[in-house]
Automatic annotation (TrEMBL), chain A:
Protein name: Sarcosine oxidase subunit beta
Domain of life: Bacteria
Record has Metal-binding as a keyword: no
Any one GO BP annotation for this protein: tetrahydrofolate metabolic process
UniProtKB/TrEMBL annotation, chain B:
GO molecular function: sarcosine oxidase activity
Full protein name: Sarcosine oxidase subunit delta
InterPro entries: SoxD (IPR006279), SoxD_sf (IPR038561)
Gene3D superfamilies the UniProt entry points to: Folate-binding superfamily
One protein family per Pfam: SoxD
GO biological process: tetrahydrofolate metabolic process
Organism: Zhengella mangrovi
Lineage: superkingdom: Bacteria
Length: 416, 95
């Protein structure tokens, strides 16, 4: 069923009795050509592009719970492509362009809103760094704008311009950045994949891989054995657990990242704002809540909740840059489990097991990458070759010294 | 999280800095024939278990000792804390 204004009117006149479920609740078949493990944003996007762009058939997505129930439903919904390094920027800019046409491609309202992102600048050195970043973005075909303090004040007069410790000197702005409705992204990809014949199998946890002579033949699941020609694992948050079933160790630690949302308020924020002197980012949802977050807690964790010291740290960042947030009441706070890689960049690569491919290590930048991650992973699964924009996201970059350390810091799993 | 420091009693985890898996105590031999591979695995690869995890915490805002803390990564329950020096000495004594 294609969604349209006409359809909506017809359904409104006939009591909304014609709507069908957006995807089938499929039961597993004995075997598939492609099995994608993980029914989150990245897994569902992979299935969509594999079926639609690469014209592959006999595809299943296996999800241990319900689709979209993991990190795609727990993030702060920001989309942007303001990266610096060559290995990253082309990929994230591809993702940004895919966001711009996502709703038309999926025939689904993902509420993509290009309301812009403003990275605040608090020192001369930071202005130099952001000017360089902005130039790198423009060289890769993205948009970037450098604002001075007066321009920032005109766009966001509520910021604390009198703060002596963290003065606001300007901002790097990407106007095409913004937010998207995270759940709708998962549902839109699921619906489109389903319409292209993909079986979405929920409550089906992978418990093992059948590997013979170095090649994967099937996955063992809680709903039985499923034969597979090619297996793609996209389970960020649980990557180490799932890949351990295939005997692989990853350059990943799992950490908890907390996020927060206030009660609904009238429109106060023009777009996404990030504090450059601490770590704090905030946007306003269409429902009116201020959605914000900061750093990871900093210790290995699979608990989807964090501790109070980081809550305090995040709120201090918020108060330092935007004192009015102190008047808002917190409605909810929650945690998500992040695949933190040792250089802060993701992995989309083949593994040492033939036919077994891996997509993960998204640290806490996975949501904005969803479309490009799905496209690049589908390309890898369909052709066996890395997508042109994702060539740097290799496992062996740690042994060859080709780390993508966007933050300019060395090997530790505490980066973006 | 409260860490039961073996010398100082219960201390708030925010007094500590976290390093990671206590396997980092077992530094590979830099002169081994395959030292490249050993150091790659040592520096970058992790078991990253969901459940019981032995890990290194540094008492930065305290007595500046290194501890090996046994903690459940699913519940955040802390089960045990030992001085890292004691752990290392015990391992050496056991060969």
């Amino acid at each position: 069923m294609t969604y349209s204004g006409l359809r909506l009117i017809r359904e409104a006149l006939t009591g909304h009795r014609g709507w069908k479920p957006a995807w089938r609740d499929a039961a597993p078949r004995a075997s598939y050509d492609y099995v994608i493990v993980g029914g989150g944003g990245h897994g569902l996007a992979t299935a969509h592009y594999l079926a639609r762009t690469y014209r592959k058939a006999r595809i299943a997505v296996l999800e241990k719970g319900w689709i979209g129930g993991g990190n795609v439903g727990r993030n702060t919904t920001i989309i942007r492509s303001n990266y610096l390094l060559p290995g990253n920027e082309a990929f994230y800019e591809l993702s940004m362009t895919l966001w711009e046409s996502l709703e038309q491609e999926l025939n689904y309202n993902a509420m993509v809103s290009q309301r812009g992102i403003m990275n605040l600048i608090h020192s001369d050195a930071q202005r130099d760094a952001y000017r360089r970043r902005g130039n790198a973005m423009i060289l890769h075909g993205a948009d970037a704008e450098l604002l001075d303090a007066g321009q920032v004040r005109r766009e966001a007069p509520f910021l604390d311009f009198g703060n002596a410790r963290f003065p606001i000197r300007g901002a790097l702005v990407q106007r095409r950045a913004g937010t998207a409705r995270h759940d709708a992204v998962a549902w839109g990809y699921a619906r489109s994949a389903d319409r292209h014949g993909v079986d979405i199998i929920q409550n089906c946890e992978v418990t093992g891989f059948d590997i013979a002579h170095g090649r994967v033949r099937a996955v063992e699941t809680t709903r039985g054995r499923i034969g597979a020609g090619t297996v793609g694992v996209a389970v960020a948050g649980s990557s180490s657990r799932v890949m351990a079933l295939a005997g692989l160790r990853l350059p990943i630690e799992s950490h908890v990242l907390q996020a927060f949302v206030t009660e609904g308020l009238k429109p106060v924020l023009p777009g996404v704002i990030t504090f450059g002197a601490g770590h704090f980012y905030v946007s306003q949802s269409d429902k009116g809540g201020l959605v914000f977050g900061g750093d990871i807690d900093g210790y290995n964790s699979y608990a989807q909740r964090g501790n109070l010291p980081v809550v305090e740290d995040v709120c201090e960042g918020g108060m330092a840059v935007m004192p009015m947030i102190g008047r808002a009441r917190l409605l909810r706070m929650w945690g998500g489990v992040m695949d933190m890689t040792m250089d802060g960049s993701p992995i989309i690569d083949r593994t040492s097991v033939d036919g077994l491919f891996f997509n993960g290590g998204w640290c806490y930048g996975g949501f904005k990458a969803t479309p490009a991650s799905g496209l690049a992973f589908a390309h890898l699964l369909a052709t066996g070759e890395p997508h042109a924009t994702a060539r740097a996201f290799r496992f062996d970059r740690f042994s060859t010294g080709r780390m993508i350390d966007e933050k300019g810091a060395g090997a530790q799993p505490n980066l973006h | 999280m409260i860490i039961p420091h073996p010398l100082l009693g219960p201390r708030d985890a925010r007094e500590f800095v976290y390093l990671g898996d206590a396997a980092l105590l077992d530094r590979p031999d830099g002169l081994a024939a395959d030292a490249d591979r050993l150091f790659h695995d040592y520096l970058y690869l992790r078991d990253n278990p969901a459940g019981i995890h032995r890990e290194l915490w540094f008492h930065e805002h305290g007595d500046r000792s290194w501890l090996v803390v046994t903690r459940d990564t699913v519940t955040h329950a802390i089960l045990k804390a030992e001085l890292a020096g004691d752990v290392a000495r015990k391992r050496r004594a056991n060969g």
